[in-house]
């Protein structure tokens, strides 16, 4: 992944962490953002309770591909 793309993703994560444009953050404990540098992106539904608890994507039932 290029340095430019990494910087853009870092800025996006910063914006997501402070975003209050809608009510999606109400009731959640933390933002679940992607991790690592994969060559493939998987987009799922909103994080479930286990993802919210751990702060990591696809650790609950949805992660059992």
How do you describe this structure in short?
This protein is mainly α and 65 residues long.
Structural account:
- This protein is mostly helical.
- It has helices at residues 3-18, 49-54.
- The model has no long low-confidence stretch (mean pLDDT 82).
Q: What is the averaged pLDDT score?
A: 82
Radius of gyration: 13 Å
Q: What is the terminal-to-terminal distance?
A: 24 Å
Q: Any low-confidence stretches, pLDDT <50, length ≥5?
A: none
**Could you say how many structural domains there are in total?**
1
Measured as a percent range, the helix fraction is: 25-40%
Counted beta strands = 0
Alpha-beta content class: mainly alpha
Q: How can the largest sheet be summarized?
A: none
> What's the helix-strand series?
HH
The number of helices is 2
Task: Summarize the helices and strands and which ones pair or pack.
Elements: H1 3-18, H2 49-54
Question: What are the main properties of this structure?
Answer:
single chain, 65 residues, mainly alpha, 34% helix
